[in-house]
Structures are given as C-alpha cells and as structure tokens.
Amino acid sequence: MNNGVVIVGAGHAGVQAAASLREEGYSAPVILLGDEADLPYHKPPLSKTFIKDAEARPQLLRGETFYSGNAIDFRPGVRVARIDVAGRQLDLADGGRLPFDRLILATGSRPRVLPLPGAELAGVVSLRSLADARLIRELSAGASDVVILGGGFIGLEIAATLAAGGRRVTVVEAADRLLGRAVAPGVAAHVRRRLEEAGVRVLTGQTVLRLEGNDGRVVGAVTGSGERLPAQMVVVGVGAAPNVDMAEAAGLATGNGIRVDASMRTSVPEILAIGDAASYRHWFTGQDVRLESVQNATDQARLAARTVLGHSEDYAAVPWFWSDIGDMKLQMVGLTAGGDRNVVSGDPAENRFSIYHYLGDRLLGIESVNRPADHMLGRKMLAAGFSPAPDLVAAGADLKAALAAHQEKTAAE
Ligand code: FAD
C-alpha cells in the first residue's frame, strides 16, 4: 500500500488537495493528473481580464517549482479514461495504468452545449479553459459584433469585458431576467441597467433559434422573434455540467454530480470527490447542492486532504462567490434560495448596495455590489451563526459591534 493518493483533475480543487496533503503531513506519493497542457491556473481572470489583453499571461495557481518542491508528481496532458474500482487503479487514455490507494476526483465541470443549428460553425465558442480563453481573445480581436447566449455570470463578465474593448455585444437570455439562478431580481435588474449603460444590448425572454454561417464561419444569430443579429463570434454561456461520466461508469453514486458525504467520500470510501464535480447535502440549508466556486473547490480540497489523513470532520465552510461585471464587484455569501424576505442596505443609484436575505429571522446570505465590507462581515456572521435582526440592518446599525456582542455573549455562556 504505497501507491499513495492519485488526484484526477489539476484545477482549483485538485491542486489545493495536493498542496493540503503535503501541508497536513502526508508523506506517501501524491500524483496529480490533469488533461490540460498548461501549468494549473486561476480560472476567474479568464472572463474578466485575460480575454481583453493580448499580452496577458495566465495567473498560475502555484509557481512552477511548487510541485517538485513539495514532492507532488504533477503530470500535465494526462487524461484518465476509466476507474477500475475493484483493482484500485486507473486506465489512462494513452493506454497506461496507474494504481492508487486513495483517489480524489477533481474533474470539474464543462460548458453545457446548445443543440442549435449552426453550433458547429467556426467562431462559436464557450469558455472553460485557458485554451478556450486564448481562442476567444484571438477571435474577438477580429470581431466587431459578438452575441452571447446566456445571461449567467460568465456570459455577462465576457459581455462587459468585450464591450469595454469596443465590441458591439448582444446578450440573449431565454429567461425573463439575467442571472436567474444566481441572484435576487434587484441585483439582476441593477446589473442589466449598468450593462446597458455600458453599451451592451440585453434581450431577455428570447432564444436564438439558429446560427448562420458563411464559408463555415459564423456570421449571425437568428432569434425566436426573427431578428438577425450579426456576429463574428458567438459565445455559448448557458451553464456547466459536472464531469461525472467516469465516476458513473465506475458505479459511483451520482446525481447532479458525484455524490459525496460530509467528509468528501463517495459511495466507495477510498474514492473522494471535490469541487465543481461533487454534489452533497449542504450543512447550511440541508439541501443537496453542487456549487461552482473557487471557495467551494478549495475548502473541499482542504477537507478531503484531512479525510485522507484519517481526520473525521464534517464540511462546514461558509459558501461564498464573487463576480466582476464591468464596474460591479458582486459578492455573494451564504445560500439564499428559500428566503422569504430581504432588506436592502445602501443605494443602487450609487452602484453600492447589499441585499440581506432572511428566512424568518435567520440570515441566509448577503448579495453585495461594491460593498466588500458587508461581504466580509457576512462571512463572519454566518460562520458564527449570528443573524442580525432585519430591523438593525434596515436602520444601518453597526453590525460589526452586534456580532462582537453576540460572540462575547456566546463565549460567556
Ligand atoms: P476545474 O478548475 O475545472 O478543474 C478540473 C480539471 O480537471 C480541468 O483541468 C479538467 O480539464 C480536468 N479533467 C477533467 N476530467 C479529467 C480526466 N478524465 N482526466 C484528467 N483531467 C481531467 N468562481 C468563483 O468563485 N468566482 C469567479 O469569479 C469565477 N469565475 C469563473 C470564470 C470562468 C471563465 C470559469 C470557467 C469559472 C469561474 N469560476 C469562478 C468557477 C471556478 O473557476 C470553478 O468553480 C473552479 O474552477 C472549480 O474547480 P475544480 O477544480 O472543481 O474544476
């Protein structure tokens, strides 16, 4: 039993898992397999800054020498094809085999595809990897009109970035508002207003029926209402699906992701799963979730490393997320689905406000636009299990002091 831990996927979760194993004192082999060619990099900047700057280089998750310096056997360009659960080994796409004692699946997610006529045309892209971002950067340099299918975070970040770079951008969203799955209507309406002020055309409640091409290259998108939108590039940003095929084929329990328990163990206890690919019952809401965020990936990775080392702890990290859309820094903390009332603090007209979401008197989460202090305090409040009374928030009371008083009181009890 000295095959050590093999980690599949060298993204945010996989790299953190490798690092945490060493930080926690794991001394057996750690092998990190990733199917991309590049050194592991931060994904968030791809849609925010990388695609607009011809000179931009990827921001590496760890320096080049980190892996060898920590005895992490990082193998780029290696795709795992199959998990042999009974034999405790992996079949690699190049025909090789790799045994493991423990396996951590950090395979992430991939963009959903739209079965649209014309989706195969050159110039139709989606953004998940550095290779995708390089392609978008290259294509957008020669594009004056860009159509973005989907009004989620990544689509809107790209829209704002490309509009700031002088492109005419149209976002087409099938739902009746932007960011439908992610934020409250008030935040979504604010984002729409500011994007429109920045020159982005936003069509909601509309779909694209087909893409048109010329010589194999996309030249336009036709909407359900019959409008033809010119486009030299079409970005499909309609959400992501977890990479579960391999886990499913191996017989691991899945359901909107690879199912894991509170310690990140799959239905086969020697195999763990983390990050975008994993779904689990969330401690905060009691609901099954699969979260796509850097926080979720890295916190789960830290816990998975501790599980491998024999600690028995339940995942209890406070969920948070951020997105930069033009001049709006959106920050979300908590899980706000199921809330029954909210309180707004600050002024949307100043592009600085937060929405506090409650279920009864329990604070579920805060969505902030350019109010990082609210977000940071929100993380502390949720971690402490403290819900400021909605009236206090509405009155603009000192919530930091209220949290301190709560902590003093609970310490005394
Ligand atoms: P990934 O980082 O996707 O890594 C998975 C890796 O596994 C990939 O490299 C994949 O190629 C590899 N892989 C998959 N299958 C195999 C296999 N069979 N063999 C070998 N390798 C395999 N989150 C935020 O919190 N804030 C943001 O602002 C934000 N912005 C984002 C912007 C973009 C453009 C994107 C794409 C994502 C953004 N996210 C953001 C989400 C965040 O990046 C993800 O939640 C995070 O990357 C998840 O980490 P992961 O390790 O689970 O998956």
In the CATH hierarchy, the third-tier topology of the largest domain is known as FAD/NAD(P)-binding domain
Total strands: the figure is 26
Mass-distribution shape: globular
CATH architecture of the largest domain: 3-Layer(bba) Sandwich
The CATH class of the largest domain, by name, is: Alpha Beta
Which strands sit side by side, in order, in the main sheet? 3-2-1-7-19
So how many helices? 11
* Domains (count): 3
The description of the largest β-sheet is: 5 strands, parallel
Bound molecules: flavin-adenine dinucleotide
Mean pLDDT comes to 97
- The rounded distance between the terminal residues' Cα atoms is 47 Å
Give the uncertain stretches in residue-range form. Answer: none
Tell me roughly what share of residues is in helical segments.
Answer: 25-40%
Beta content: 25-35%
CATH superfamily of the largest domain: FAD/NAD(P)-binding domain
What is the CA-based Rg, rounded? 23 Å
Note the main attributes of this structure:
413 residues, alpha/beta, FAD/NAD(P)-binding domain, Enolase-like, domain 1, five-stranded parallel beta sheet, 11 helices, binds flavin-adenine dinucleotide
Could you walk me through the main structural features you see in this protein, from its secondary elements to its overall organization?
This protein has helices at residues 12-23, 44-48, 66-69, 130-141, 153-164, 185-197, 245-249, 294-308, 372-383, 390-394, 399-412; strands at 5-8, 30-33, 72-75, 80-84, 89-92, 97-99, 102-105, 109-111, 124-125, 145-149, 168-173, 201-204, 208-214, 217-223, 228-230, 233-236, 240-242, 258-259, 271-273, 278-281, 288-289, 320-325, 328-334, 341-347, 352-359, 362-369. It is an alpha/beta fold. The chain folds into 3 domains: 5-110 and 241-308, FAD/NAD(P)-binding domain; 113-238, FAD/NAD(P)-binding domain (3-Layer(bba) Sandwich); 327-412, Enolase-like, domain 1. The strands form 7 sheets. A 5-stranded parallel beta sheet has the order 3-2-1-7-19. The protein has a 5-stranded parallel beta sheet with strand order 9-16-10-11-12, with helices on one face. Strand 4 (80-84) and strand 5 (89-92) form a beta hairpin. Helix 1 (12-23) packs parallel to helix 8. The radius of gyration is 23 Å and the shape is globular. The termini are far apart. The model has no long low-confidence stretch (mean pLDDT 97).
